[in-house]
Write a structure and sequence with these properties.
Helix content is about 80%, strand content about 0%. The chain is mainly α and about 60 residues long.
């Protein structure tokens, strides 16, 4: 996910994306603890995508 793509979205879409990524990150962490995580690198990508969404959201709200 690129920051330029995120900047084209509305605030509501970004907030929805933020919630989805946060839920996905929670599920990945839960799978990690239970030993069912197939790809540990997925946590890293989701965290970065979430950070990008939050950054663009803060830019738009300011």
């Amino acid at each position: 996910m690129k920051a330029n793509e995120l900047r084209e979205r509305t605030i509501e879409e970004l907030q929805t994306q933020e919630k989805e990524l946060a839920d996905q990150l929670f599920a990945l962490r839960l799978n990690k603890v239970t030993g069912q995580l197939e790809s540990p690198a997925k946590i890293r990508t989701v965290r970065r995508d979430l950070a990008r969404v939050l950054t663009v959201l803060n830019e738009k709200q300011a």
